[in-house]
Design a protein that fits this description.
The protein is built from ten helices and no strands. The mean pLDDT is 93. Helix content is 71%, strand content 0%. The protein folds into two domains: 51 residues, Arc Repressor Mutant, subunit A (Orthogonal Bundle), CATH 1.10.10; 150 residues, Tetracycline Repressor, domain 2. The chain is mainly alpha-helical.
């Protein structure tokens, strides 16, 4: 562990995660190296190993932070809305993910690599955040739809969360991908994060 106050340790962890996030805006997961991340921080590359052993751990920490931000958004929805219709909840849920394109992008592209390339304790920290997101969505369902059978609530969770892995690829298509689909005769219909999420959530909530 690095020497220094807990505040300094956390500040340096955040600086590393922020550097990774910035690089990810212009480079792919495979292109980014620890050297790149170190070059975007205020301390030496070797110092990164005091906080993270691999780039996968850094990406996993970034994904963990995205989940925690999404959880905060969901808690805000519950704090600001005593009651919601099925349409209203689907709308709020879709808007919450519309703000979390980074979460959806990382989930869709690098999840397996991040988990296999991270130490056990880092994976546990991430799984706590992931588990809390499941619990928070369940709390939303319990709050707004108390009459919904538990089996339907569970079906919502274990359909919606796997569905989230596919949102980004269906809503962000490169010119190269689009040209290939056109040549292959694939009729691609663009949908926004909001549209595809709302439609799925509304279907799972039922009539």
């Amino acid at each position: 562990m690095p020497k220094g106050s807990p505040e300094l340790t956390e500040a340096r962890r955040e600086e590393i995660i922020n550097a990774c996030e910035k690089l990810y805006q212009t480079k792919s997961f495979k292109e980014i190296t620890l050297k790149d991340i170190g070059g975007a921080t205020s301390f030496t590359r070797t110092s990164i190993y005091n906080y993270f052993q691999t780039k996968e751990e850094i990406f996993l920490a970034l994904l963990q932070r995205e989940y925690e931000l999404w959880i905060a958004d969901l808690n805000r929805i519950m704090a600001e809305n005593v009651a919601l219709t099925k349409d209203g909840f689907a709308d709020k849920l879709a808007h919450s993910l519309e703000k979390r394109a980074q979460l959806l992008k990382i989930m869709s592209m690098n999840h397996y690599d991040m988990e296999t390339g991270s130490r056990h304790e880092r994976l546990v920290e991430f799984k706590i955040a992931y588990g809390n997101s499941l619990k928070t969505v369940m709390h939303c369902l319990e709050r707004y739809f108390p009459e919904m059978p538990i089996t339907q609530k569970q079906r919502f969770l274990y359909t919606f969360f796997p569905f989230m892995f596919g949102i980004y690829p269906y809503t962000y298509v490169t010119e190269k991908q689009q040209a290939a689909m056109e040549e292959a005769g694939v009729n691609y219909v663009f949908m926004s994060i909001y549209e595809i999420t709302y439609n799925c959530a509304r279907m799972l909530l039922g009539e």
